[in-house]
Design brief:
Number of domains: 2
Helix content: 10-25%
CATH class of the largest domain: Alpha Beta
CATH topology of the largest domain: Rossmann fold
Length: 357
């Protein structure tokens, strides 16, 4: 069975069930098998490096590509499986493409109206008017796509996808074409609109920060497989492996030795649980912000190699006895460092441990 993202036995029936879905793309890459279940009104982010399979999975859900094996069900209806394949236009799934794919010869109102040809004229006009208002595009209804800014085009594409009241909306890198200053505001407005309309959405992104700040649940992919899925805090704070840890955070990697449930390093001893033999080499993963300035007696210390002021934070590189590589610290404190040395402590609750191999 597809993995229930909620982890709650009393959760409602999933909107979308992906059961051992697989697709081979040439000799060098295969997607899946993928198991996933998405609940009503969830906003799920598929995230991973380029080429990991997230956009391919989106196209399989949309029906743009056919799976080689596995099954796909929407609202309990099989869309793909053994001897079954429902064409994209019959799936009740909305799609917002990376380049928005608005029809250039149609006005914004006509673009949104496009998917409502089977609706009565009165109902279609009412639906379009509501979406124009929700997306703050009412004053631009008669304009053509080339007359709109990138953010306005994105909102128009989303309104067009929402118009037929789809069970799920798929969005492929919807914010990547926007300037950095505009991206955050458009993302905020988009998520607010999805929540106001109780829309279930799957958003593809390669940006870790965007995934963590956007999704109710995050699905991390690598080489066509799901590495880990869960809430943003779960993936950030309790990564399943080194790949998941390093995808979402920057770390100091400190070598050590595993003995009786503790990792012994040059920076101290940290409690951990690893599936390795006694005396094995392992790594402590320490986030730069977990390295904190400290004046307490017995604190660790190092000599300052470099300082980089970045506005809200300052990044400091420290040479610490026993470490081959410099230790990176990031702090919001305004430090007055004397004699080129700095004392610090490490929050042990934030230290992660992984096998060295």
């Amino acid at each position: 069975m597809a993995e229930q993202l909620h982890g709650n036995a009393k959760s409602p029936a999933p909107v979308l069930e992906i059961d051992k879905l697989a697709r081979r793309l040439g000799p060098g890459f295969a997607l899946g098998p993928v198991d996933l279940a998405i609940q009503p009104k969830q906003i799920v982010c598929l995230v991973g490096h380029s080429g990991c399979g997230k956009s391919t999975l989106l196209r399989l859900i949309a029906g743009i590509e056919q799976p080689d094996s596995g099954a796909l069900r929407l609202d309990g209806r099989e869309l793909a499986g053994s001897g079954v394949f429902v064409e994209p236009e019959m799936r009740n799934i909305g799609f917002v493409f990376q380049d928005y794919a608005l029809f250039p010869h149609l006005t914004i109102e006509q673009n949104i109206m496009f998917g409502l040809r089977k609706w009565s004229r009165e109902d279609a006009r009412s639906r379009v008017a509501m979406l124009l208002e929700l997306t703050a595009l009412s004053a631009m209804a008669d304009r053509y796509p080339h007359m709109l800014s990138g953010g306005e085009q994105q909102r128009a594409a989303l309104a067009r996808a929402l118009a037929p009241q789809p069970s799920v909306v798929l969005m492929d890198e919807p914010f990547s074409n926007l300037d950095r200053d505009l991206r955050e505001r458009v993302r905020h407005d988009t998520i607010a609109l999805l929540r106001r309309t109780d829309t279930t959405a799957i958003i593809v992104t390669h940006d870790p920060e965007e995934a963590l700040s956007t999704g109710d649940f995050v699905v991390l992919m690598k080489s066509g497989r799901i590495v880990q899925s869960g809430t943003p805090r779960e993936l950030h704070d309790r990564p399943a492996d080194r790949y998941a840890a390093e995808f979402f955070s920057t770390f100091n990697r400190i070598p050590g030795t595993y003995r009786k449930g503790r990792l012994h390093t040059a920076l101290g001893v940290f409690p951990c649980r690893l599936d390795v033999s006694e005396g094995s080499e392992a790594l402590a993963f320490i986030r730069p912000q977990a390295v904190c300035p400290c004046l307490a007696e017995g604190a660790l210390s190092g000599s300052v190699r470099s300082r980089s002021f970045r506005g809200e934070i300052e990044q400091i590189e420290l040479d610490v006895e026993g470490l081959e590589a410099p230790l990176t610290m990031r702090t919001t404190q305004r430090l007055h460092i004397r004699d080129g040395r700095l004392s610090f402590s490490i929050d042990p609750d934030t230290v992660l441990a992984f096998a060295a191999a």
